[in-house]
Amino acid sequence: MISVTPDTFRLAEAFTISRGSRTEARVLTVRVMREGVTGWGECVPYARYDETLESVTAQIEGLPGNISRQDLQDALPPGAARNAVDCAIWDWQAKHEGCPVHKLAGLPAPGPVVTAFTLSLDTPEKMQAAAARHAHRPLLKIKLGTPDDMPRLEAVRAGAPEARIIVDANEGWTAKVYSDLAPHLLRLGVEMVEQPLPAGQDDLLAEIARPLPVCADESCHDRASLPDLAGKYDMVNIKLDKTGGLTEALALKTQAEAAGYGIMVGCMVGSSLAMAPAVLVAQGAAIVDLDGPLLLAEDRATPLDYDAAGVHPPRPELWG
User: Which member of 95, 141, 232, 239 is catalytic?
Assistant: First the structure.
């Protein structure tokens, strides 16, 4: 049996990107119940990919209750619905067999990984203040994506002069804006820029200079995305809500690494349950951005642990 329920988690403060703002994380919780054992997973339907709570719920409710993880890969396309069910089946199998997911997947035991902390898009003054509040964090991710981002970049660097910085434009720039900003990104010590141009309109990345690594986010969903990234991107951002679960995320990571791409592991804004499987994928990644729970005012009953070492693998009570 597979059940799906909506859940809402309040954010600690409004979260803004170039496409809009939100004050809560609206997620779906999926439970797979078989032989007296329940496994669970979470997904975050994303409007950018034409997903709603209702459409994703309908996809999940249309599945056979006893579907296998292997059959699931063909039954649903990459996306939020398949992610929640895939991760719930992994959790169910781990509990049913009394074996942690990393062993089931043939992976070494995971450890903590340093994660970015995201500063949402705002005025330069407010972004500088936010950077100063979080200057103790080792890696800051700045949400940008407007034609007027230079003052924001300068403000964040002034607020956190020692922090490592990466930038996410969320498809908000043109090739000209990116080319104009790139030297200043380097000057300010930015290590990577994520999805500067809109997906489907990013061919120009193969023709202009890329003086710092460019990471594909909206342009990379699963392994089928990789051929179209050649010559345009240096890294890929693996998110389980895009790949359609842990199964494809691990396969994408392996194939992307073999093709020479650097690995970033990211997330939508969700609870610790959504991040838990991604911690396995994040092992050894060049950049990890699993800060969803840090942006929440409330979380699951058994949340992930975050400390100076980063985000720790989930406890069995949460997942895996």
Answer: 239
